[in-house]
Write a structure and sequence with these properties.
24 strands
Length: 318
């Protein structure tokens, strides 16, 4: 009996050894089959994704002239690469578009890293766009989608826009521009952040670069904030970036950090000498916890914190 059991054990051991040998010999093939199954699945998945997103046609150094129904040039389009897709708009990489007016004179030139053309022929710019006007003025904007309406000669965006201004960054809720103009409108709420740290909030801001001007203008309620003061103007502002003068229009209220307030109108904020000076030739009333003073004019140097009330000064002290 013990001999029989021993033979069974020996047979079982031999079977294990033979099986292990077979598995060792064919392990590469077994592993290869397993890997191939997984690879085939991935390749099929990638193939589906590729077919859904791949282009039908690619053209390097793309160039085309677009004409109106009466054979007038609407625009010239050039790009480093052109991609056409089955169910998606045409894509252009590093694209430049030159527009033309009804007299066949050049309008604006637009440069962007990415643009799309839909089935109706409308061009949409994505990301940063440089707009060079007929008078060589430059507007730099960034937006999710800027549409060029060739039939209307308009640039339009209903998305958030970031405009790179003179020593400032401007955020708005949209923009519009005539391609034959040096003026650009930032629409909706507008927020300006200056390199100096000052802030300005308004709406519907017109940026005018006509005749080398650099003027920002709005007729809407405006709030200007510096380090120490907050100024509210009920009729908007005009800001000349060439001379760093800002006119806050209409009724103006200044709230100081020490609980003081000043009421006047048509206030000029002068930053031309690197400092900040407020001045007006309009009647002014200054209030502090200790006094109320009225005058015909006002001059306020925020750096030295000195206020000059000039002409027919009347003070009431508590």
């Amino acid at each position: 009996m013990s001999i029989f059991q021993t033979k069974k054990i020996q047979s079982f051991i031999v079977f294990i050894i033979v099986l292990a040998t077979i598995l060792w010999i064919f392990q590469d093939n077994i592993l290869r089959m397993s890997v191939l199954d997984g690879t085939n699945d991935n390749e099929n998945l990638n193939q589906v994704e590729y077919e859904n997103s791949s282009y039908f046609e690619k053209i390097d150094n793309f160039f085309i002239r677009e004409y109106s129904d009466n054979q007038q040039i609407l625009h010239l389009i050039s790009a480093d690469a052109y991609y056409s897709y089955k169910n998606s708009p045409v894509r252009l990489l590093k694209v430049e578009v030159k527009t033309f007016d009804k007299k066949q004179q050049e309008g604006v030139t637009l440069n962007a890293n990415l643009a799309e053309i839909n089935k109706d022929g409308e061009i949409f710019f994505n990301g940063k766009v440089l707009i060079e006007t007929i008078n060589d003025a430059i507007h730099e904007v960034s937006t999710e989608s800027l549409m060029y309406l060739s039939n209307d000669g308009q640039l339009l965006s209903n998305n958030d826009v970031v405009y790179t201004g003179e020593s400032s960054i401007i955020n708005s809720q949209g923009m519009s521009m005539n391609v034959n103009s040096d003026k650009l409108l930032l629409s909706g709420d507008v927020h300006i952040e200056y390199e100096s740290g000052s802030l300005l909030d308004s709406s519907n801001l017109l940026i005018n670069h006509t005749n080398d001007e650099k003027v920002y203008q709005s007729s809407e309620m405006t709030i200007y904030q510096s380090t120490d003061n907050e100024i509210t103007a009920d009729s908007g502002f005009i800001m000349n970036m060439n001379n760093n003068l800002t006119s806050l229009l209409g009724n103006v209220k200044i709230i100081g950090k020490k609980g003081t307030s000043l009421y006047s109108s048509n206030l000029i904020v002068d930053q031309s000498n690197g400092s900040e000076v407020y001045k007006t030739n309009e009647p002014t009333r200054y209030n502090s916890p200790e006094s109320s003073i009225s005058s015909n004019k006002m001059y306020y140097d925020t750096g030295s914190e000195k206020i000059k009330l000039i002409g027919n000064v009347v003070a009431i002290y508590e």
